[in-house]
Amino acid sequence: MHACGSRVNRGFRKFTYSLRMDTKLDPLAADRAFFTALTSANLETLDSLLVDDFVLIDVLSGSEITKPMLLAAVGSCQVKFETIDVVESRMRVYAANTAVVTGRTEMRGRVGEVALMASSRYTHIFVLQDGAWVLVSAQGTQIR
User: Fold this and answer.
1) Mean pLDDT, the chain, as a whole number?
2) I need a surface site. Which of 6, 54, 73, 129 has the fewest CB within 10 A?
3) pTM of this prediction?
């Protein structure tokens, strides 16, 4: 259980994310670490994974969510991710310093007191910055 009272998703393999890993799989590890940090409300990991000008396009409303807004919502338990199951994902790397990860998720949680259940497709853009893969932008599109 994390601070918001949600269960950590048991579907993810346990691993420790290091911002200094030197393998081609780093963007995928960073992608999984992002989802794990959301389900566990791990603000320290989220802070290290997201660039300061990170922008998330919300899967339900299409609104822009900045890094400070996301950290505040997760930290205050206004947004609680009970599970985020990555059903599929694919990575492409460009010029050795930019990676695009696309995939599909099944999410369950709460926004305030309203239950959230969504199937979505997502696109995450990572860049290699000072030897670390960091998330620059994320967009989710709900599958109906």
Assistant:
1) 86
2) 129
3) 0.83
